[in-house]
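Standup notes, structure subgroup. Blocker cleared on the zinc ion input:
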Amino acid sequence: MSNRPTTAPHETSFIPPGADRCGRCGKAVYAAEKRVGGGGIWHKTCFNCATCHKMLESGVECAADNEVFCKTCYGRKYGPKGVGFGGGAGCLSAE
Ligand SMILES: [Zn+2]
Ligand SMILES: [Zn+2]
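Run returned:
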């Protein structure tokens, strides 16, 4: 019994050691496509609102549940001004 399966059933991509992982798709994020925001690291193309997929600019994202949202969707989902539920949710105010 020496033939181990070479492909893990739920692992579709190899994450290099030390590489950052995208909070949206879970794949490795390299410097050229890296966006930092909402307490996580994202691909440039993944850094958009989890609800409406509007592109987000750094500094205006609202973070909750390990996801990022635009202000509008965040407000709808979690209430205005990011009323805390004690779960570390927070909305950066750019105003
Ligand atoms: Zn991604
Ligand atoms: Zn949105």
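Discussed briefly. The first helix runs from residue 71 to 78.
Next: hand off to the docking folks.
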